[in-house]
Amino acid sequence: MLKLKTLLKEDNHYPADAPEHFGSGKNIDIFGFQTKHFDICGTAVVLYNKLKENDEHKDLIVASAKEMDHLFEMEKQVVMGEKIDHDPIKHSVELINTISFKLGRLAELTNHSEGEKDTDFLKDHVLVIINRRNKMSESYDWRKFREWQRKLNEGPAYEYAREVKNIEKIKAAYDKEVNTLIKKVARQDKKASKEINRVWTNYNREYSYFKRVMEDELNKLA
Description:
single chain; mainly alpha; 2 domains; 2 strands; 70% helix
């Protein structure tokens, strides 16, 4: 007699020894991007359904979703023993870093303090790729792999993201001071207060444009 889990995996064309999370999710539409491999991760489905509430950051959300979909595609290929024309271990770690970078940025933009927890599940998918791939090849060069992984925390994308964070910290400090000043002026001169608010509104509009440009640059570098 076949167990329900076995029937489920056969119905979805997964091998009998597929990981537990295979079949836990479903493919979804993310701002026009239709996923193809989210069926193996229910956590990703929950995460992106939540992120879809922030349509002002849809470009960054879609960019991260495309990379995650490719990560899941590679995991499927490894689990099913399909031939891959590149190193799935190296590429999966590269993807997990760029995805985490983008999701971390989204956590900042949406004031979501648990961004790191949202990406914890990704390591499980990479571990599946590493463990299954190593069964096929025990001679993987881990020294070279660790050196390559170290380099992911260097370079223009990493430096740029750090500078962006510094800029936003400085702006937040000035925002607090200006808001305090506006309240003081409002109590003494309402006309001057309105003029300051007008200038402040224009400033914030320009800064919003600046942030969108920064996000575009981050997408290119990441």
